Amino acid sequence: xxxxxxxxxxxxxxxxxxxxxxEGWVRMTLTAVGVGLGVALLLLCTALPNxxxxxxxxxDARYANVYSQKVPxxxxxxxxxxxxxxxxxxxxxxxxxxxxxxKRAPLPPGVDAFPGKGEMVVSPALKDLLASDDAxxxxxxxxxxxxxxxxxxxxxxxxxxxxxxxxxxxxLTDFSPVHRLTEYGHPDSTPEKTDPVLLLxxxxxxxxxxxxxxxxxxxxVRFGGERRDRRxxxxxxxxSDSRMTRRIAAGEALAGALLGLVIGTGFFLLGRQALGSxxxxxxxxxxxxxxxxxxxxxxxxxxxxxxxxxxxxxxMRGVVVEPLGxxxxxxxxxxxxxxxxxxxxxxxxxxxxxIGKGRKSGGFNQYLVIGGVLLLLxxxxxxxxxxxxxxxxxxxxGALSWQLAVRRLQLSSGTAARMVxxxxxxxxxxxxxxxxxxxxxxQYTKATGKDPGRVQMQVDFSDRKPLSGVEREFTGxxxxxxxxxxATLEYGDARRNPxxxxxLTVGNCTALRELATLPSCKDGDVFITRTRSHYTSPSNADxxxxxxxxxxxxxxPSYDDATERGIEVPWTVPANVRVVxxxxxxxxxxxxxxxxPAALPAKAAPALFSDGVYLRLDPSVPDSREYIRNVVTRIxxxxxxxxxxxxxxxxxxxxxxxxxxxGSAFVLALIGASLLVSQLEQLRERRKLLSALVAFGTRRxxxxxxxxxxxxxxxxxxxxxxxxxxxxxxxxxxxxTRTPVAMDWASVLTMTGVGAxxxxxxxxxxxxxxxxxxxxxxxxxx
Amino acid sequence: MTTxxxxxxxxxxxxxxxxxxxxxxxxxxxxxxxxEVVAIMGPSGSGKSTLLHCLAxxxxxxxxxxxxxxxxxxxxxxxxxxxxxxxxxxxVFQFGQLVPELTCVENVALxxxxxxxxxxxxxxxxxxxxxxxxxxxxxxxxxxxxxxxxGQRVAVARALVTGPRLLFADEPxxxxxxxxxERVMELLTEAARSTNAAVVLVTHEARVAAYADREIVVRxxxxxxxxxxx
Lengths: 782, 230
Prior knowledge:
heterodimer; A: alpha+beta; 8-stranded mixed beta sheet; 7-stranded mixed beta sheet; 20 helices; B: alpha/beta; Rossmann fold; 6-stranded mixed beta sheet; 4-stranded antiparallel beta sheet; 8 helices; 35% helix; globular
């Protein structure tokens, strides 16, 4: 067979697709839209590396927190900058105070002019948020006048919330979050070495998300196949041989795939713009970030039409097109199992050498990972037709709707399996990934040692604040049940240059009880703990020896080498000093001498400063965290406020997980659309038959139920197979990462449930057309 | 208001039905007696299939009345009409009537199963009818594996299996050669007469209409009884 003949037949097929009248166009449009959706998703994936690179570029370009660098002297090109991030409900807001020190001070990326004091430039999303009705509390927190917006070059996404506020008089001290810089940018932006397990997750996520897309495209090029086969019979009548007929069919699919490429590019461009104006799971991008890598885009452009031809040629093997009609091999050969087991077994064989490798033995072989996972997942599409056939051939007795469904499945189990392939592959991949994520979660989640049941929020001031003022501010704040604000200061055994000196914690009884177990407490009491929390050598015997009742000590002693003199207030250790046990879960690290305010001389009051506040919230008050953030901003705009949580997840681990959820949502939507088209196409094929059945009195309920069984049976079988393969793949992946294999049945059921829900929605959506097709009008021929 | 001819099983009066701007029926009249075979003839697009669909309660007419056995069909609900079609009527169409995934005996048994018969009983009765129509050897085959003529005989068996009082046949031989067409008509009319079932036969072939006792010609949506016109 000459390539010329091949090309001629393919072109003829493509021409038939275009000139085949309404039927031809409907079929080609179905294929093209299906392929187009797949192409758009593939192009989106080829653009993902660019998205990550672009976001990192912006983050590096606007980086301004440099701790190790030598502070430059004030000059014409220097500026002061301080971090003032905040949070609005669950959204983080990037905030910076900037103060240029000279005319040549560089502007932050994306900013046209420095905001003056009391002014700010904001991201478009923050501007919209501040203008919205429910952002009253945020407007109180950021009361600055908006003088401009931050441009694309200064933001990592269209929905990022960010502001640069103008400042004057920022103080550059050793401990303040204020920095003097001459330029923005990360001093060392060399990429850090990626954790091999995280890289494995990324690879598996890509394969798991893209395999169903490939399966979907393979299904899309067969949309409308039955109608096409009837037209091919006419070609056989005028002398086309069976091989020619297959090639002509492939040509038709090729035309659909090529049109699909064009439509897909259109979908991608539209989607690119749409994604620029939306936010998915807290992640937004700029349309310009979504530029596909040219090599990968070229691969998509070549692979899709080639796959269309290949899939059609393979599909046509089971169809005998005769001059007087299509015979779908009435006595089909029973499917054989042996070769269908080969892909999954080959996949396991590829993954096997990496078992037990773990995180510490270097990276995983990327090709083996991709190949192994791909073969295991593709194995589902090979095994599922066999499983469906093997099961339905044994089914029979039951209600009429059941019988109609079972007989239909027995006659064309391949079509049913094809419909379910995509969802089964997606579910298997999701189960495997969920197992991998759950199994390795402990490695990427560390316990913070904090008990969110005890304290819900903590405030760290940028500078020391008078204790009395801090307590006053928080006592009346809405939503605050208790505020613990201990003050720390120093004491020594001499007025100047003491031999023994230590920290002293001052707080009311509520505050001190968070640090030590106190048998009783009233204002005026003094305690010393037997141990000091979080110390390598916890015994506090040395300090206990110093703090003897009646001994003269000095609060805030002075040192000869210090720049400022202490207040040197004499203090006699009272007789009622009690030795107590420090709490193992003390809120503060150092907690030796604990003193209530009344036990200190009045002269010591000016030395009482708070570094931070621990807050217990009233859960019944909505927006309590927002009220607190507003109070904090009023006291200290540079303070850091954060919520307590028992655990903290690795940021990369979290972003891979988020990426999986976003990708899965797109893939499931795509598969749902594919299922719906296949379902409607099958119903259309049977329109006349459905009308005839209704004509002689078949209840619509019977037919609807039969359609439901027809979907439910292969879906059920597909999900069982998907669960088996998913658990196998998940176990192998866990063994590869040296993680004990444990089943998270809740996740397995959730993933399976999501798959079943997609099918359920599709079935529900196909019911109205089914009922329409059962109308007697279907009998009309004119 | 006209009264039904005495002893008639099904009577239709002044039937009108339009599909958009096209008037498929424009005042058509019809009546049939038990055991009678009536052929509805007419050119393509004249409204003969629409008349059959209305008479069978498949499509409701826009106006007019249809009386079956003293009951007004146009006043019945869809569920009542469906029940009537299941138990009182039988149907044979030109195409697309056998369920391709069911075997021939399962196809013939289908109306009985719809009426609630057990699978075993339904298939036993179905096989009896298949013998009468000389297609019992096809019981385990699927429609795709039998010839057009054999398929139509299976369809006739299915139409008669419930013992209907009225059989509707829409171009039952339209897709068959003359030999097979005549054999199907012979078997259909014989079987109907043996059970005293009336047959409404839509055809455009005079050869097929010759099996009828009476002919009605439909043209531009109006009917004309040829026997009475003579």
